[in-house]
């Protein structure tokens, strides 16, 4: 089990924490063991002294030495009836270094003395005072050395640590098994699902199904599944868009060639003897030119970006007139639709600087969407185009009296294939229009959309600093 794994580190930390807890228990345990040891020496000394007091004669020296050795002490002093009596005695090898009264010793004092006894390597002689058992006197006092006490305390501490280590290892193993079953197995399952999904993100079968019993892991699996579904859907949509882009590029390439040929024949209509044909020829040529330009732009879009605007100064009113006339003709060809009135409020002398063809596409998309929305109601309606200028730039407003955009269209406005406002629509029109306006450094935004109609506002700045644009030389 490696320490670089979660289970290895979990087991190591468990063992460390259990050992720390046992170390905190060790000092009180040693203090209690020392206290029990000293009290047992007092009891043995009391028994040995009672053997002496039970006889009227003085014990032989060898018997007295045997009693003291069995008790593990040098001297025994009893105090009875306020008389202090040396009952048993033997030579003391060293001077008495400390006195401990066990009759009223706080726990922390006992713990401190035990730690000092454990850390003192030299053998010393100490005096211990306690209360005799069974009320056999007022006090009992003994003298003893500390060598054996320290040895037994060390043995007891090592045994306690060994038992603690065994319990620590057992606890760590049990906790590790529990962690494996409750945490690591579900985590490895999530990792395996993520790996399988990374190998085939387009395959919906690799999306994880939340099955974890723990609420936190279940929430993580649920969030992962939602993210995988979103990514899979986005990848499929991008794949469809890529295929559509390739198809549109091929169609635009062939259509451009066809329109170029048509443009050549349309140029000859200007020499027609029919006055009506001669008047319609420029508009037809302009329409074909815009179609050719649109095909070329589509081919450029297939390379991931629109071409930079080719700036020129032109009269906005004439451009708006072209847009409304084209849409009016399209409206007249729709059977069963209510009549649509086109109103323009554009100053006749308003000159703006922009790419004329791209701005035509933007306004055509906005007006066409407005027209189709009104036609869908089978009721009469109005489309109004207004424009003006201020110190910062130019603005163009396009409004209608249609039914307003649905909520989904407002939520995904200007996103391709998401913001369509009518059934069967793709939403490409508004997305392309917003992109073209951004290329000018401007902004296309929705001012309002409700039951009384919809209004968009297009703004173009005068300052073009930092924009990559092409000037055609007509800005004069």
UniProtKB/TrEMBL annotation:
**Transmembrane feature ranges:** 12-31, 158-179
Q: What is this protein called?
A: histidine kinase
Q: What is the originating organism of this protein? A: Paracoccus limosus
Limits of the Histidine kinase domain: 250-464
Matching entries from InterPro entries are given as:
HATPase_C_sf (IPR036890), HATPase_dom (IPR003594), His_kinase_dom (IPR005467), HisK_dim/P_dom (IPR003661), HisK_dim/P_sf (IPR036097), Sig_transdc_His_kin-like_C (IPR004358)
UniProt entry keywords in alphabetical sequence: ATP-binding, Kinase, Membrane, Nucleotide-binding, Phosphoprotein, Transferase, Transmembrane, Transmembrane helix, Two-component regulatory system
- SMART domains assigned to the protein according to its UniProt record, in alphabetical order: HATPase_c, HisKA
The superkingdom of the source organism is Bacteria
* EC number(s) given by UniProt: 2.7.13.3
């Amino acid at each position: 089990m490696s320490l670089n794994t979660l289970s290895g580190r979990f087991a190591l930390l468990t063992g460390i924490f259990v050992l720390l807890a046992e170390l905190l228990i060790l000092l009180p345990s040693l203090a209690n063991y020392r206290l029990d040891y000293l009290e047992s020496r007092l009891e043995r000394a009391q028994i040995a002294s009672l053997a002496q007091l039970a006889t009227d004669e003085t014990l032989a020296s060898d018997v007295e030495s045997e009693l003291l050795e069995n008790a593990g002490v040098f001297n025994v002093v009893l105090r009875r009836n306020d008389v202090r009596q040396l009952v048993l005695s033997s030579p003391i090898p060293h001077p008495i270094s400390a006195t401990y009264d066990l009759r009223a010793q706080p726990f922390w004092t006992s713990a401190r003395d035990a730690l000092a006894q454990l850390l003192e390597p030299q053998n010393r002689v100490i005096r211990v005072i306690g209360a005799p058992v069974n009320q056999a006197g007022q006090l009992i006092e003994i003298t003893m050395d500390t060598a054996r006490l320290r040895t037994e305390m060390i043995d007891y501490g090592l045994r306690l640590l060994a038992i603690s280590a065994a319990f620590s290892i057992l606890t760590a193993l049990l906790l590790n098994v529990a962690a494996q079953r409750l945490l690591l197995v579900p985590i490895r399952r999530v990792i395996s699902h993520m790996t399988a999904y990374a190998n085939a993100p387009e395959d919906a079968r690799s999306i994880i199904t939340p099955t974890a019993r723990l609420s936190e892991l279940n929430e993580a699996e649920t969030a992962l599944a939602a993210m995988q579904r979103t990514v899979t859907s986005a990848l499929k949509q991008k794949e469809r868009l890529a295929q559509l882009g390739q198809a549109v590029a091929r169609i635009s390439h062939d259509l451009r060639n066809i329109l170029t040929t048509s443009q050549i024949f349309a140029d000859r209509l200007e020499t027609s003897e029919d006055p009506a044909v001669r008047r319609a020829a420029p508009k037809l040529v302009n329409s074909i030119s815009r179609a050719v330009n649109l095909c070329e732009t589509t081919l450029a879009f297939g390379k991931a970006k629109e071409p930079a605007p080719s700036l020129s100064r032109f009269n906005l009113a004439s451009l708006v007139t072209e847009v409304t006339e084209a849409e009016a003709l399209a409206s007249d060809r729709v059977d069963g639709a209510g009549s649509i009135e086109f109103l323009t409020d554009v100053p006749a002398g308003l000159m703006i600087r922009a790419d004329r063809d791209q701005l035509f596409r933007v306004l055509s998309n906005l007006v066409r969407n407005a027209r189709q929305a009104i036609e869908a109601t089978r009721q009469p309606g109005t489309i109004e185009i207004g424009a003006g200028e201020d110190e910062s730039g130019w603005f163009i407003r396009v409004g209608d009296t249609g039914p307003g955009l649905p909520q989904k269209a407002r939520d995904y406005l200007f996103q391709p294939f998401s913001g369509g406002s009518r059934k069967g629509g793709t939403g490409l029109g508004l997305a392309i229009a917003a992109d073209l306006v951004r290329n000018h450094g401007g902004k296309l935004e929705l001012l309002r959309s409700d039951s009384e109609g919809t209004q968009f506002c297009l703004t173009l700045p005068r300052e073009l600093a930092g924009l990559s644009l092409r000037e055609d030389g007509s800005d004069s």
